[in-house]
Amino acid sequence: MNLTKLFETQRVLDERIMEKHPELKGQNNLDWKTLALQVELGECANEWRGFKKWSNDQESRTQVLMDNPDKTDKNKPWIMRNPLLEEYVDCLHFILSIGLELKLEDLKYNFAKNGLRDSLEAFRHVFNWAVNLDFVAIEAPFLVPKKFEKMYRNLFMSFVWLGEMLGFTWEQIEAAYYEKNEINHERQESGY
Question: Which end of the chain has the lower number of beta carbons within 10 A, N or C?
Fold first, then answer.
């Protein structure tokens, strides 16, 4: 897992977003980034479906056939997508961006320890850390940086553990992240 490269890639995208949206420069953008993360986590959980105890369909959306957006390739009218992985890496974009906002891209992590029982508990941990970080950033921004470091570290570690519990390898996550990062750059170019 090359976190340095991921943070640097995210920094380039964040800088491009700032160029396209200069009103965001020079302000604290943590409020909308943490909300965006929470929304993306909800979308990820929705593709996971494991919390939908009322439904007979609790299978994760990991293989969905869709039209190939590249209409020039007549031999491949369809492509297989993994919506769960796509939503997971959308979350990763915001987690990295939050780390950059807090200037915490150089933290050390211990991803080896994971006492979580299942994906439901992992989702809840990530949600809780995201909400706690958001609350502290808004209500108690005067807290010492160490408090933010601990909260962000726990958020990031819980998120990585969630990915493992969802069955993703770090290689899959990185590949999907870079693919989506390219799309995000294209979206900035096209005025998304």
Answer: C
Q: Which helix (H) or strand (E) holds 162?
A: helix 145-165
Bridging pattern class, strands 64-67 and 78-81 = antiparallel
- Can you tell me whether residue 142 is helix, strand or coil? coil
- Other beta carbons within 10 angstroms of residue 146's beta carbon come to 8
Q: Give 61's strand partners.
A: none
Instruction: Please list the pLDDT of the chain residue by residue as tens digits (192 residues).
Output: 789 999 999 999 999 999 989 999 888 888 899 999 999 999 999 999 999 999 999 899 988 887 776 667 677 777 778 999 999 999 999 999 999 998 898 888 877 777 888 999 999 999 999 998 888 777 766 666 677 888 899 999 999 999 999 999 999 999 999 999 998 988 888 777
Cβ pair 18, 10 in contact under 8 A: no
State the amino acid at position 32 in one-letter form.
Answer: W
CB of 67 within 8 A of CB of 78? yes
The answer to whether 101 and 152 are in contact (CB under 8 A) is no
Whole-prediction pTM: 0.89
Residues 137, 142, 147: CA angle, nearest 5 degrees:
65
